[in-house]
Amino acid sequence: MWNHLPNLLTLGRIVIVVIIVIVLRDEGAAAGAVAAGFFFLACLTDYFDGQLARKYVLTTTLGKFLDPLADKLLVVGILVMLVGMRREPRIPAWLIVIVIGREIAVTGLRAIASGEGIVIPAEELGKYKMIFQMFALHGLLLHYNYLGIDFHLAGMYFLWISTVISVWSGSVYTARVAREIRAQRREGAGA
């Protein structure tokens, strides 16, 4: 049972995505706060599943597949729901297209690299991107003013920062994959 706990936490995060999408069908302040609470819970499961897997050497092939999938479903699901909302001010759809496009591109690059037998671990920039995305999504989910804080505005600042880091890290990742594939092919041709 314990050796499956990281994967169970990851599956729980995928279930939370469904819950958040259902909750966000209501655009009110209470629904936004509930969704932000579930998002916080999802962030905790993301932290703990990785910690448990590394600390107790419980990494599995399934976990290596599910963890990034759950992360992407969480971010993309929330962003799509937020863009579809009519509450003002709105989030620019083109900005979300950039964020989602980067996620799809990096996933595709991982598949290409894997097909070539190359495993490229996550970059430090990608971790910073995720941290800023977490702050952005919390603010954007809360959306309204609480205790004199404009959560939508704060969320947008963090979203801009995470988008810049996202494009930057995506470029670094693309260059690294291309370099690794070229090096592997040169080695194969020289053998």
What does this structure look like?
There is one protein chain. The protein has helices spanning 5-23, 29-55, 61-84, 93-115, 124-142, 151-190, and strands at 145-146, 149-150. It is mainly α. It has a single domain (2-190), classed as CDP-alcohol phosphotransferase transmembrane (TM) domain (Four Helix Bundle (Hemerythrin (Met), subunit A), Up-down Bundle). It has a two-stranded antiparallel sheet with strand order 1-2. Helix 1 packs parallel to helix 3 (61-84). The longest helix is centred in the C-terminal third of the chain and has 40 residues, at 151-190.
Primary descriptors:
Four Helix Bundle (Hemerythrin (Met), subunit A), globular, mainly alpha, 191 residues
Question: What does the secondary structure layout of this molecule look like, with pairings?
Answer:
Elements: H1 5-23, H2 29-55, H3 61-84, H4 93-115, H5 124-142, E1 145-146, E2 149-150, H6 151-190
Antiparallel strand pairs: 1-2
Helix pairs in contact: 1-2, 1-3, 2-5, 3-4, 3-5, 4-6, 5-6
